[in-house]
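Onboarding guide, step 5: your first structure request.
Type a short instruction followed by the sequence, for example:

Predict the 3D structure of this protein.
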Amino acid sequence: MVAAEIIETITSKGGRIWLEEDKVRARLPETLRPLVGVIHSHKLELMAELARRPTMPAGVRLIRWAPKAAPVQLSQCPTVTNVDLFIGSTLRQLEARLNGKDWLAGNWTLSTLIDRLDTVGCYVALDDPRAALQ
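The system replies with C-alpha cells like these:
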C-alpha cells in the first residue's frame, strides 16, 4: 500500500491523518485499527505525501487530494497555469470568507470557492455545512 492509498483509505472511512512536527498522527475508526502497523512501516512515505498537501483552514477538511496538471480551465476565470499556487490562494480566500472577510475572499461565495477547488482536484468539505448557507 503506498502513502496516497493509505491516506485515501483512512479519510474515506471517516478517519483522519496529519503531520504534527516530525510525527504522523492518525485518528482511526475501530475498523481501521489494523492499519497502525502499516502507518508505522510507511512513516517516511506518509510524511512526504502529507507535506505536499495544503494546510486546511479551521472548519474545512480535505476530502480528496488529486491535483490536476496545469493548465486547468475554470468556468468563471482564466486558465490556471500554477495549480499549487491557485489552491493555496483559494484556500486563503475560503478562510477569509469563513471569517466574514468577504473582501479578502474576492467576494466569492463559499460554494463557488469550494467548486473552484474541486475543479483543480482539491476536494474539501466544511465541518459545519450550515456555514455555507449564511
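Each response can be followed by summary notes, for example: The radius of gyration is 16 Å.
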